Structures are given as C-alpha cells and as structure tokens.
Amino acid sequence: MASIDLNLWPTLSKTPLSQCEGSTVLVQRYLLELLTEKDTIVYNPDRGTDFLTELRSGSITNETVLHGAFTLAESDVRTILNEEEDDTMPDNERYVSSTLKEISLNSGFVVLAISIVTKAGPININVPVNIG
C-alpha cells in the first residue's frame, strides 16, 4: 500500500508539482476535484463538489455528518475522474474509489485520512483542511 505525504507548500517541496507521475498524478487530480467548490469554475460550473462548501458552512456538526458529506462528494469525484480516464492511462493513475478512514477535528481545521483505491491498489493520504 502506497502512502503519500501531502505538502501544501510547493516552495518547500523537493519535487515540483509539474513533475508528478504515477499515483501522485491521481492524488493531485483527486484533491483538485474534492476541494474545488461547485459553481466556482466559470467555464465548467459542474466541476468539483459541495464538500468544502459544507465544511465551511458550519453544517457539519459531527463525524457522522462529515462522513455523509464525504460520501456524496466521493460520488461526484468518481464520476468526474472516470469520465476523464481511458485505457491508455497507467493503472496507478486510474481512480476506483475512496474512503474516509479517519477524522481529526481541531480548532479551525480538520485532518482527513483518506484511502484512495486505484486500479493498481490503494494509496493513503492525510489532508488538512482549514474550516475556520
């Protein structure tokens, strides 16, 4: 099982995002969709999910509600990523599903432990999200 350390500050990263390959490409595509709010891309308002919008709205009052919001968002992400993929892509760049494994609630932010399943196998990521 692969594990990826998410570095949200590219200036500190040893590998520029433009040089991503393999499963890192899928993680980048996945997070772009999960954390892009619907109706924020003028030329493609259906792109993204309502996940971040719900997190920031204050309507997520407990872990059960957060899991539900994630499940709805995962369905949108799956649809978008599967529409983009074709048989020429490597298996480790092809999305199957994702699961929210663990939630760490903190003051002003949440850390999501997510398992992304590719056609080549699972990848685990930890994603800090500012909700304050």
Task: Indicate the topology.
Layout: E1 2-4, H1 23-35, H2 51-57, H3 63-84, E2 95-106, E3 109-118, E4 121-130
Parallel strand pairs: 1-4
Antiparallel strand pairs: 2-3, 3-4
Helix pairs in contact: 1-3
List the defining traits of the structure above.
alpha+beta, four-stranded mixed sheet
Molecular structure report:
By secondary structure, the chain is an alpha+beta fold. It has a single domain, classed as Nuclear Transport Factor 2, Chain: A (Roll), CATH 3.10.450. The protein has 3 helices and 4 strands. It has helices at residues 23-35, 51-57, 63-84; strands at 2-4, 95-106, 109-118, 121-130. It has a 4-stranded mixed beta sheet with strand order 1-4-3-2. The longest helix has 22 residues, at 63-84.
